């Protein structure tokens, strides 16, 4: 155990692929700071198989029973999105801190309701936005804060992925009431969160979206132009129709361009810094990260545990975590209503605050004959 660090009892809620593929390895990478004491899944056989694979002693099919019996310090929510709100609320009310997979919840109304369950000094709920935490993003964030690259001017934030029809055979996918939205909500949210963590608060969004090729109720592609409080303008595209997949962000500052091209995670090699012609070589060399830490669940969980140690709010929670939900809400409202949306509109009473489709205002459409 690292000096001065505590050990926390952890419960895993939901035992699907994200739990085994990302969260258990992340826990095992914490030098003994976290130990899984229980797993919960509505499918008892799946919970038992997961527990046997990872050496977890206790399994449950009911969350409330697990919370009352095990009293974990931390619950990690890995369920489908529609179950996030009730699961997080139950854990907070039981006194457990919560780390919840993306997308956080299905609406700003649900997000705000969970924020109201938090208490000063904890427990808090934070959300999985691991791309913020790689060394290259940290270095760029520091450079923006100090003005080392000049003013942010132009940006690109593109999540161009491919998901076929079979992907949407999972019943909760592609439906507003169970997934909250399409690729804007379920896929592009990671890159948009990274963008927001770097550029800060947005001011206005103008958007379009469509259901062009997948037989789903949500969009399968969205495009937006976003203005920031700094004055920067950014192009945002989210797609599940793109055979050559890429996650691409570019930021043009007055003295340099910074780019990252990856898919599901990056290290320093995925980033480039290009100085403005004439910028001193010795100065631009100092822009590169001094260390190489890959974006991952591992590194975000370490920061979450640090926050638990000090009894403070973790990153990607509260108002900080809300910004991504705000932008997604504004993007959907703009695309559906056909008008610009400002951030200050996203308050209770706005139908898009309660439902990301504005309460059934989006009608998906695909061509009668789709070329294959």
Automatic annotation (TrEMBL):
Pfam families: GFO_IDH_MocA, GFO_IDH_MocA_C3. Residues 9-122 form the Gfo/Idh/MocA-like oxidoreductase N-terminal domain. Residues 138-249 form the GFO/IDH/MocA-like oxidoreductase domain. This is Gfo/Idh/MocA family oxidoreductase.
């Amino acid at each position: 155990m690292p000096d001065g660090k505590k050990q926390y009892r952890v419960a895993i809620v939901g035992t699907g692929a994200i739990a085994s593929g990302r969260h258990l390895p992340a826990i095992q990478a914490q030098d003994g700071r976290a130990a899984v004491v229980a797993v919960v899944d509505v499918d008892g056989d799946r919970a038992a198989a997961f527990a046997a694979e990872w050496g977890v002693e206790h399994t449950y099919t009911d969350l409330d029973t697990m919370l009352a019996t095990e009293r974990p310090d931390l619950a990690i929510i890995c369920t489908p999105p529609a179950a996030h709100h009730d699961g997080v609320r139950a854990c907070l009310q039981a006194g457990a801190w919560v780390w919840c997979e993306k997308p956080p919840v299905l609406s700003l109304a649900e997000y705000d309701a969970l924020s109201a369950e938090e208490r000063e000094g904890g427990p808090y709920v934070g959300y999985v936005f691991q791309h913020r935490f790689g060394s290259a993003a940290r270095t760029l964030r520091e450079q923006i804060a100090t003005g080392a690259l000049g003013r942010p001017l132009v940006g690109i934030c593109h999540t161009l992925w491919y998901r076929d029809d079979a992907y949407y055979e999972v019943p909760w996918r592609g439906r507003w009431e169970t997934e909250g939205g399409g690729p804007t909500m379920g896929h592009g949210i990671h890159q948009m969160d990274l963008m927001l963590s770097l550029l800060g608060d947005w001011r206005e969004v103008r958007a379009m979206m469509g259901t062009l090729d997948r037989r789903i109720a949500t969009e399968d592609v969205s495009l937006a132009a976003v203005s920031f409080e700094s004055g920067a303008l950014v192009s945002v595209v989210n797609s599940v129709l793109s055979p050559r997949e890429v996650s691409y962000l570019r930021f043009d500052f007055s003295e340099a361009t910074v780019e990252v091209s990856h898919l599901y995670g990056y290290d320093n090699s995925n980033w480039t810094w290009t100085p403005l012609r004439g910028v001193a070589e010795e100065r631009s060399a100092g822009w590169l990260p001094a260390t190489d830490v890959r974006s991952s669940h591992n590194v975000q969980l370490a920061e979450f545990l640090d926050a638990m140690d000090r009894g403070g709010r973790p990153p990607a929670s509260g108002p900080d975590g809300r910004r991504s939900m705000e932008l997604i809400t504004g993007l959907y409202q703009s695309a559906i209503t056909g008008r610009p949306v400002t951030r200050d509109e996203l308050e209770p009473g706005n139908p898009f605050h309660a439902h990301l489709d504005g309460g059934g205002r989006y009608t998906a459409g695909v061509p009668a004959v789709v070329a294959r």
